[in-house]
Amino acid sequence: MTFTFYLLCGLTLAGAVAAMSLRNLVHCALSLAVAFGGLAGIYLQLDAQFAGFAQVLVYVGAVAILIVFAVLLTRGSEPANEPIYSTRWFVGLGVATGVFAVIASAVMASKALPLGPLSAPTVVIRDLGDQLMTRYVLPLEVLGLLLTAALIGAVIIALHDNPPKTGDAK
Questions:
Q1: How far apart are the first and last CA of the chain?
Q2: Is 0.70 topped by the overall pTM?
Q3: Could you tell me if residue 12 is inside a domain?
Q4: Per-residue pLDDT tens digits for 114-126
């Protein structure tokens, strides 16, 4: 393993721990974006270009930004007198360790793990890009239009003021 790989692992873990332990929702969302970005870097280091670029586009570019917009548009206010970090961080650490142990034991006991060396993949990113821009261009454009309409609708719903109650009208 290289120094870059360990650096990306540390960045991913630090972002994930910060996302779980911070109290401010905007800081949590940005920490989650850092964790997603570190994970994308790990994928790219392991020569999984499609998974890395999909991680950047889908999770960093869409999910994390959507979370930030949702937090900012809902105008969630938090009390300023609370501490930055949660006082029960050890409970989350215990649960995360337990879940990791169960998943790791299930993966290691699986008979689906390859025993020999893997062959090189035959499909490259260029082929996937060519297919998206030729054969699947219409579904890609429709999906982009649908996501844009959903974002505009979410903004309209978030900014819509509540109508006055019937007793308040003069």
A1: 73
A2: no
A3: yes
A4: 777 777 767 777 8
